[in-house]
Amino acid sequence: MELIDGKLISAQVKAELQAEVEKIAASGGKIPHLAAVLVGDNGASETYVASKIKSCEQIGFKSTLVRRDASTSEAEVLEIINQLNNDPDVDGFIVQLPLPDHINVDHVIEAIDPKKDVDGFHPINIGRMAKGLPAYISATPFGVLELIKRYNIETAGKHCVVVGRSQIVGLPMSILMQRNTYPGNCTVTLAHSKTQNLKEVCKSADILVAALGKPEFITADMVKDGAVVIDVGLTRVVDTTKKSGFALKGDVKFDEVSAKTSYITPVPGGVGLMTVAALMYNTLLASKKEIYK
Predict the structure, then answer these.
(1) How many independent structural domains does the chain possess?
(2) Going by C-beta distance under 8 Å and a sequence separation of 6 or more, which residues neighbour residue 196?
(3) Can you give the pTM of this predicted structure?
(4) Distance CA 228, CA 261 (A)
(5) Is there a domain that residue 12 lies in?
(6) How far is CA 54 from the centre of its chain?
(7) Domain of 177: which CATH number?
(8) Is 85 helix (H, G, I), strand (E, B) or coil?
(9) Is 251 in contact with 214 (CB distance < 8 Å)?
(10) Dihedrals phi, psi of 152, to nearest 5 degrees
(11) In terms of domains, do 88 and 201 share one?
(12) Which residues pair with 65 in a beta bridge?
């Protein structure tokens, strides 16, 4: 079993991005600028956004945080998006999810200019990705692809099972793994809560991507010997032995599953760190106008 080290790979990606920004600065070019919109006071969202802002500082990007309280109306959020769409200095921006219940997420995502949609959530970017056209790929699936690539994990002809069909992770992951490229060329099964014989389906996977948001759902009897297991899950679970009062758990029961795998991502220290690195990469692409000329 080999551990897929997200901390190591994300540091490599950030170092490469930093070197690129230094070149841009030396030639008098425009420094990439990422903005983040944070509505409400969700604890996990606060942590994620802080991590993204910190990464911008490390790499040398310019960053802006637009903060609003939970009572902010949908119309106000849409106006903020309109301003960011029209700000020539902002190369890309994200609206941190989840949003307060009174705000329609689809309205918000569809209001973002696809050229600045560095989260890769806009229907145009998802459609372009599905067709194999240049697109911003959702940060978490992008991060998973980068881990597979940098560990030289073989994907062609393999059976990839993705558990979870969210529009942010599961669905794009299933599309990306079947594309005629590397990583890709898998035969893909997209499984979910209504899948019959889920245990047997998972056990048939050469590459198993767990993205259903249920802590320690994937157990050893659901994984075949030698499988590659990518754990996208990240859930706070009460743990009174920890100073914080909680522990972070993935969707995979790591202690019992890891012994059966050829490669596995830990939680924390796996996919989560790559998500932020991938967002930074998309922001650089946006600043260089590499997706939309």
Answers:
(1) 2
(2) none
(3) 0.93
(4) 6
(5) no
(6) 17
(7) 3.40.50.720
(8) helix
(9) yes
(10) 50, 40
(11) no
(12) 36
Residue 150, classed as helix, strand or coil, is helix
Closest alpha carbon to 142 in 179, 104, 93: 179
Just list the catalytic residues: 52, 96, 119
Q: 217 in the Ramachandran plot: left (φ > 0), alpha (ψ -120 to 50) or beta?
A: alpha
Strand partners, 238: 246
Identify whether 132 is part of a domain.
Answer: no
3-state secondary structure 29-91: CCCCEEEEEEECCCHHHHHHHHHHHHHHHHHCCEEEEEEECCCCCHHHHHHHHHHHHCCCCCC
pLDDT per residue over 137-160, tens digit each?
999 999 999 999 999 999 999 999
Q: Is pLDDT at 286 greater than 90 in this prediction?
A: yes
Determine phi and psi for 193, rounding to 5 degrees: -65, -20
Question: How large is the greatest C-alpha to C-alpha distance in the chain, in angstroms?
Answer: 58
Domain shared by 192 and 106, yes or no: no
Which tokens is 93 given?
A: 């921006």
Burial class (CB within 10 angstroms; exposed 0-12, middle 13-18, buried 19+) of 202: buried
Beta bridge partners of 236: 248
